[in-house]
Amino acid sequence: MSPFELAAPSSIAEAIALLEEEGARPLSGGTALMLMMKAGVLRPPRLVSLRNLGLGKIETGGSLRIGAMTTLSALERSPEVRNGWPVIVRTLRRLSNVRVRNVATVGGALAHADPHMDLPPLLSALGARVKLVGKGGERTIPVEALYAGYLETTLRNELITHVEIPPLGKRGAAYLKCTTRSADDWPAVGVAVVLGDDTRIFVSAATDRPTRIAGEAAIAGLKIEGDLHGSAEYKKHLVRVYLRRAIDEARNAVH
Questions:
Q1: What is the pLDDT of residue 154?
Q2: Per-residue b/e over 140-152, b at no fewer than 16 CB within 10 Å?
């Protein structure tokens, strides 16, 4: 691993200023970043820790507001999340393992832009929005608008500070993934469904970013590329199978 400077700002403004250095990277949980640095894929001259910015809170008041530094395990254990958005808890129980969930953060899971992540398609289907802060000010966008492609985001030297999820209400929701090895492995396909007046269906892992589809008829038009988790043809078949299963589960999980 190449040497780097570690900065620990105490304000968002300070963090943004420190990230102005070319190649500087924010450090949240670090579960993916450190692996990429050890592999030599990334060699940032500076890491900017976000741990002292007060972004680790979970708040409810109709909608669910999650600070970007909230760990996945804290989200999984939250009574408010379990009561109001149980599909999130069900999803987290099969996301990697307890050790990773104790460290990985919500903001990091979104900013990494790996299409095999479980939270981006689910939060997209739930209609979640992310608050971004940068040198130019603040903006709020839908979760799915964060992504431009494989490991590519639309962030403009910005930090994710919060995620806001509207009430689930009586809508049924489900997220299902197909893994080719252990149950908590990276998915070959992930499908998130939220049923209601505006039914939202998102596919991931088979596509290079969380992709909204209008139903089974739209699967034929999906751009799917094979990888070590399966060929394009196999993944397209999995999308059809898991879409039907996810819809059935969402119908049975009407909240």
A1: 97
A2: eeebbebbeeeee
- Label residue 98 by pLDDT band (50, 70, 90): very high
pLDDT band at 133 (very low <50, low <70, confident <90, very high): very high
SS3 letters across the chain: CCCCEEECCCCHHHHHHHCCCCCCEEECCCHHHHHHHHCCCCCCCEEEECCCCCCCCEEEECEEEEECCCEHHHHHHCHHHHHHCHHHHHHHCCCCCHHHHCCCEHHHHHHCCCCCCCHHHHHHHCCCEEEEEECCEEEEEEHHHHEEECCEECCCCCEEEEEEECCCCCCCEEEEEEECCCCCCCEEEEEEEECCCCCEEEEECCCCCCEEECCHHHHHHCCCCCECCECHHHHHHHHHHHHHHHHHHHHHCCC
Q: What is the mean pLDDT of residues 126-146?
A: 97
- Average pLDDT of 47-75? 96
State the Cα–Cα distance between residues 22 and 8, nearest whole angstrom. Answer: 17
Six token digits for residue 130? 């992310």
Does the structure show a pLDDT above 80 at 255?
A: no
* Domains of the chain from N-terminus onward: 58-165 (3.30.465.10), 173-252 (3.30.390.50)
CB 113 within 8 A of CB 124: no
